[in-house]
Design goal:
Elements (H helix, E strand, L loop, with lengths): L1 E6 L2 H8 L22 E5 L15 E4 L22 E3 L6 H4 L2 H16 L7 E5 L3 H12 L4 E5 L3 H9 L4 E3 L16 E6 L4 H8 L2 E7 L11 H4 L4 E3 L6 H12 L9 E6 L3 H9 L5 E5 L3
Parallel strand pairs: 5-6, 5-8, 6-7, 8-9, 9-10, 11-12
Antiparallel strand pairs: 1-2, 1-12, 2-3, 3-4
Helix pairs in contact: 3-4, 3-8
Length: about 290
């Protein structure tokens, strides 16, 4: 695959640069396999392996699943990926519009869990955290029929972008008048947390009637008490990566219901990788798209 654009995943990039594992207790082996931690990529098929029938040279493709640190990553000009981890990109989608398909697939996985609980269509939904996954989540909530979407984030620029992408309300969580009870008339029907922070998850749990899905990487324990135990409340952990979720996210992109381009705050060549990561660290950027050929 000739890589035409690869987007940062702030969690992976920052953790790898800071010498911390992405997941608590996971091994962290350096040096990383070349090309890592890049995995949100699109490009063009230039050669196929024996037995591959689903792709041909010249096809535009995007990676929908991260193969992990066992194979070459996509911070490269060319990468060998498994056919099963790619999806054909039809039409004239640009790299910034499709490179982050893998992220969209991941967030769609959480919405699949919420939909199984009947907690999306016609519901009042809160999104905790408006980083890359939160900005995808609010669009998916809207696309899947949510009645009202509320975005919560302390950064003004993130709230402004969320409003542009379709959030009905955006609030600084420190200034928001939290319902304070699951039975309050202003309580959320369901929520999705993208921060992984107990303070965010517990605030959502205390103000949500039906279901709270935790998408953000959880590194600490959260308190689940009597007020959540009764009334059919569900606290949902993350599920798994599926080709079906990738296909659903891709369909919504083609239909114009999911726009990934606004998440890209800038385009840089690989020679400025450290600069791009610093922009992520200071939250000046939501995502950076690296151009291997720049």
């Amino acid at each position: 695959m000739k890589i035409l654009g690869v987007a940062t995943c702030p969690q992976w990039d920052l953790h790898m640069m800071e010498g911390r594992p992405m997941f608590p207790g996971a091994p962290l082996d350096y040096p990383l396999v070349p090309g890592h931690p890049g995995h949100e990529a699109m490009g063009e098929v230039v050669a196929i392996g024996a037995g591959v029938r689903s792709f041909m040279p010249g096809m535009s493709v995007a990676a929908w699943r991260d193969p992990g640190n066992r194979r070459m990553g996509c911070y490269a000009q060319y990468a060998a990926l498994r056919a099963e981890d790619l999806i054909e990109v039809k039409g004239s989608l640009k790299a910034e519009e499709i490179a982050s398909l893998e992220l969209a697939m991941c967030v769609q996985g959480s919405f699949d869990r919420l939909r199984q609980c009947g907690s999306v269509e016609g519901k009042r939904i809160a999104i905790g955290g408006l980083g890359p996954s939160g900005l995808v989540a609010l669009q998916l909530a809207r696309a899947h029929g949510a009645k009202t979407v509320i975005g919560l984030d302390p950064l003004l620029k993130r709230r402004q972008l969320a409003a542009e992408l379709g959030a009905d309300e955006v609030w600084d969580p420190g200034e928001y008048q939290w319902p304070g009870s699951r039975t309050h008339r202003d309580a959320f029907d369901s929520s999705l947390d993208t921060t992984g922070l107990p303070v965010s998850i517990e605030a959502l749990m205390g103000s949500t009637r039906e279901s709270v899905a935790v998408f953000g990487v959880l590194r600490e324990h959260v308190r689940f008490g009597p007020e959540q135990w009764w009334g059919g409340f569900a606290l949902l952990g993350y599920g798994t990566h599926t080709r079906a979720a990738a296909g659903e996210a891709y369909r919504l992109i083609l239909e114009g219901k999911l726009n990934l381009a606004p998440l890209i705050s800038g385009r840089l060549p690989f020679t400025r990788y450290a600069e791009g990561v610093e922009r992520l660290r200071t939250k000046e950027a939501v995502k950076i798209l690296f151009d291997p050929w720049g």
